[in-house]
Amino acid sequence: MLEAHVAQTCQYDYVKIYDGGNENANLVGTFCGSIVPASFLSTSNSLTVKFITDNSVQREGFNVTYTTVDRLCGGTYNATSTSLTAMSPNFPNEYPPFTLCTWVIDAPPQQQVKVVVETFHLHSSQDCSQNYLQLQDLPMHSQGSAHRFCGTETLPVPEFYSHDRTAIVTFKSDEYRINNGVRFTYQATGCSREYNQPFGYLKSPGWPGRHPNNMDCSIVLQAPLNHTISLFFHAFSLEDSIQCSHDFLEVRNGSNMQSPLLGRFCGNIVPSPIFPQNHVVFLRFKSDISRAHDGYEITWTSSSSGCGGTLYGSTGTFASPRYPATYWNNTDCEWVITVPKGRIVTVNFDFISIDDPGDCSSNYLILYSGPDTSYPQAGPYCGMDTNIAPFTATSHQVYVKFHAEYVTLPSGFRLSWTS
Ligand SMILES: [Ca+2]
């Protein structure tokens, strides 16, 4: 029993319980008076009890017992350079109803967490708000992101890199259906990394803040063998220097530092897109001891047809093949812009010049308000129009179709999206 002049505020003598290893964890409750609080189950393997008394009125105090129970799933884990595996309860077999697993994964300071989902399955009929996999940054980081995947997912879950040192993986399911479950690996990583997927985005370390000094990052983009990669710069700012000797981003056509150089960039001019005609691209970002700028934001995609592909990320840019040079005759490209679920895509026409007699029947661009051509369309667009209003979709996906039978004048387009 504790002193309780004002039971609600517990301002004199009280016990506080936090759901974690220190006082930064969620506060479960502040207790005083003589009512025994309800029992409580922590979400992880630690909790913190804090007992405070003032300088007067002594009572008997409190007596708390605790036991440990096996957690079905989730918890707090440290990521190391070795890849470790986590999975839903009893994977790949049945788990109990109303399963909620939250894995909080910490990398060492200055590193990030890489999460690779190996298996993920929920049924498409299951309610997306109650059945999902979510990969997210620690919520306190405003630049962080949350990517939610449900049973209706048409994409494989892309590799996830945390913005800072902590990643949170949540798996939620209201009931088990045959094959439901998730299995993923996690590991700590620095700024050097290899992406084995057909599309993605790249942001400089610390983006959109300044990148650290003395960075040297090697990044490999590895798309499927029969694909060719397109690399689109959305934003760019690095310290300018002669021959970009101070800070630079290099892009090479191949898998390593000896591959042919496609470009070495610094300064504040956003580079043109890069179409290396290869399924693997090597990037190196290097900064010296002083003068850091904001860095870069890049979208990349790939396809087996020479252009098009999935464009993934909350913002980005893409352009016609060979842009700012003119595309070829008989060009057909299809892109699907996909932003995190729950957001809405807006497409901006930054530049459009599509050579056509005027009816947009032979050469055109069409946007659809969903993942394929069955959704309502905007356009067709052609000609040289500098004043097209942005297109806002009704969901988190936009399908973009570009068709050009012939070209006689310099032509091309560049679009960007936000969400
Ligand atoms: Ca510098």
TrEMBL record:
Keywords: Disulfide bond, Glycoprotein, Repeat, Signal. Residues 1-69, 73-189, 191-303, 307-419 form the CUB domain. The keyword Signal applies. GO terms for cellular component: extracellular space. SUPFAM superfamilies: Spermadhesin, CUB domain. InterPro entries: CUB_dom (IPR000859), Sperma_CUB_dom_sf (IPR035914). The keyword Thylakoid does not apply. One of its GO terms (molecular function) is serine-type endopeptidase activity. It holds the Pfam family CUB. This is CUB domain-containing protein.
